[in-house]
Each structure stands twice: as structure tokens, then as C-alpha cells.
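Repro:
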Amino acid sequence: MKFPLEKIEKLTGYGLELLLENIYSDKYGLYLYVFQIFRKNTYKKIGRLTLRLGQSPEVEYLGNIGYGISKRFRRNGYAYKACKIILEFLPEHNITSVNITVNPDNLPSRKICVKLGGIPTGIVKGRENKLIYKIDLQQYNSSKCSGQNLLSEFCDTAKGMDIL
């Protein structure tokens, strides 16, 4: 089976290391890259990040990127930094956008998505309804991309969807 990305042993940046734990294809035909997140200076495992690639209706609900940070390490910006590492890596592989889905009541994850430049594009219904944030990687990696412009676009979109 040919995976869209070569096997990545580790990605580093922002004081973190993402070490590849597993790579496999799931029952939906998605390619999953599962990374353990470590603090670079202490090599303490602080969480996990999953990158899902491929075309499937399930990727709309699950999102392309999922993350979890151990409770004692939360509120330190680690999820944001781990996502930044992935987002900066993906354009090298001709991936132009990703979606992150979050539960509407998960305010910390919603803030991470906005900080990453995510724009809410809808709500996907499933076991639990989830907000979809789309991140345009060409805009994300552009020097013209400013936090103020992204915040303004987010607020305009979110008000139209009645989620603010």
C-alpha cells in the first residue's frame, strides 16, 4: 500500500518533537499518521497528534488533524505548537488545506483553530455535532497572512453561522 507521505520519523519545532508512532490505513480508506508529542528539552511525552489524509466522508467528521494533550500539560500552547509543526510541513507535499473539527463546547480547541488561521465553514452532524474549521495552507504560510485579517474573517464567518 502506498501512503501519500513518505515515512516521517520525526518533525521538530517550537520546543517540541513529533515522533511517528504508527502509520496505517483505517476502515474508511484514510491514511493515518499518529505522532507522539514530546517536549524537546525533557523528552516527556505530553500528548498525541493524528494526521488523517485521503478522501472519505468520514474525514469531514473526524477532520484531518486531531490532537490530545495530557491534562497536566494543558494550557501551555503545546497543541497549537504541534499543529503549527504539521501545518508548516504539509505544503511540501502539495496539501493545500486541512480541516479540524471540534465540539462546539470545546472553547480551548476552538481558540487553537482560530489562532492557527482556521475559518469556520460549517457544522457536521454525527454522534455529536462538530464545528469545521478550514485552514488554507497557502494563506497560512504566506507572509501576507496577518492575525488581524484572520480574526476579522473568522468573526464575520462565525456571526453568519450564529456560533459566536
